[in-house]
């Protein structure tokens, strides 16, 4: 397939592009800057200049492709307003991509987070949240999946709170950044809440499998580790950085405080059984050993 990819030069996107190219696909990558365009070219993809807000460019990219993988997101969690702007931008982009593919039967693979379900690990059958700080993402992804009835082979890969590679990425990466800045490797509450995780290279394989074979209207969990306790994550970070490990107030994490405080394990049993996906790379706690002091 000739695949249009948004967010192709990030931690996850660069792994997805390599996975696609390594399995016989070609890639058209959205590039919002000269640096991103050069990175896409260096990876073997054809760059398409434009940002996620450039809806005409998105239409053009989708029209040229046999399938679309959407990964781009502003990732600005500095304030509730910033989160709202990022969600609104992504929602408009997804609506545009979906509209371009209606009636074509082509795949549209988007991403979201694994949902939080009180008292147990979430599964692929659980609905996404449509309220809270990022509820708009849940509504946008649900709308994309609804395009299955309009001739789009739409699917969603749900990513865990930490997608990592070489000790960086995701919520664990944010904990590391905050630890470097504050001098404390902190965790909210008693730290027994669990976060799921996956290596970026394993997640990339699942995006490819969803593109190639997933049925329309389906959701899949890119979960390698069902749930590590946050205090265990903080302990590795603290040891690698030579910092004390302590409980800190949820307010330390700004707009993400309520999410950070949740116990949110997640299962990928159905994904593994149905698509034959099997994570092979380092677990989160193993990968965090790559953090440089």
Automatic annotation (TrEMBL):
InterPro entries: Epimerase_deHydtase (IPR001509), NAD(P)-bd_dom_sf (IPR036291), NAD(P)-dependent_oxidoreduct (IPR051783)
Region annotation Disordered: where it falls in the sequence: 115-134
Domain NAD-dependent epimerase/dehydratase as annotated: residue spans: 3-218
MF (Gene Ontology): aldehyde dehydrogenase (NAD+) activity
Stretches of the chain forming a coiled coil according to its record: none
Any one of the GO CC terms: cytoplasm
Transmembrane segments: none
Entry protein name: 3-beta hydroxysteroid dehydrogenase
Organism: Kitasatospora aureofaciens (Streptomyces aureofaciens)
């Amino acid at each position: 397939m000739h695949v249009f990819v948004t967010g192709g030069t990030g931690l996850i996107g660069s792994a997805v592009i390599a996975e696609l190219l390594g399995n016989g696909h070609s890639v058209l990558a959205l590039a919002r800057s000269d640096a991103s365009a050069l990175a896409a070219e260096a990876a073997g993809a054809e760059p398409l200049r434009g940002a996620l807000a450039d809806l005409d460019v998105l239409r053009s990219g989708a029209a040229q492709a046999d399938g679309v993988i959407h990964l781009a997101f502003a990732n600005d969690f500095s304030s509730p307003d910033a989160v709202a702007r990022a969600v609104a931008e992504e929602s408009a982009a997804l609506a545009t991509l979906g509209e371009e593919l209606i009636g074509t039967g082509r795949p549209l693979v988007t991403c979201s987070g694994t949902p939080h379900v009180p008292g147990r690990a979430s599964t692929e059958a659980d609905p996404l949240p449509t309220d809270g700080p990022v509820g708009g993402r849940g509504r946008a992804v649900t709308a994309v999946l609804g395009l299955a009835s309009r001739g789009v082979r739409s699917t969603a890969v749900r990513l865990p709170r930490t997608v990592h590679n070489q000790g960086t990425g995701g919520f664990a990466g944010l904990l590391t950044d905050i630890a470097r800045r504050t001098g404390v490797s902190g965790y909210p509450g008693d730290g027994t809440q669990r976060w799921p995780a996956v290596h970026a290279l394993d997640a990339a394989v699942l995006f490819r499998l969803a593109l190639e074979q997933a049925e329309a209207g389906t959701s899949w969990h890119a979960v390698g580790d069902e749930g590590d306790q946050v205090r265990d994550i903080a302990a590795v970070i603290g040891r690698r950085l030579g910092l004390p490990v302590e409980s800190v107030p949820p307010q330390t994490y700004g707009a993400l405080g309520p999410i950070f405080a949740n116990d949110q394990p997640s299962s990928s049993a159905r994904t593994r059984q149905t698509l034959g996906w099997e994570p092979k790379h380092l677990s989160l706690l193993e990968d965090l050993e790559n953090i440089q002091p």
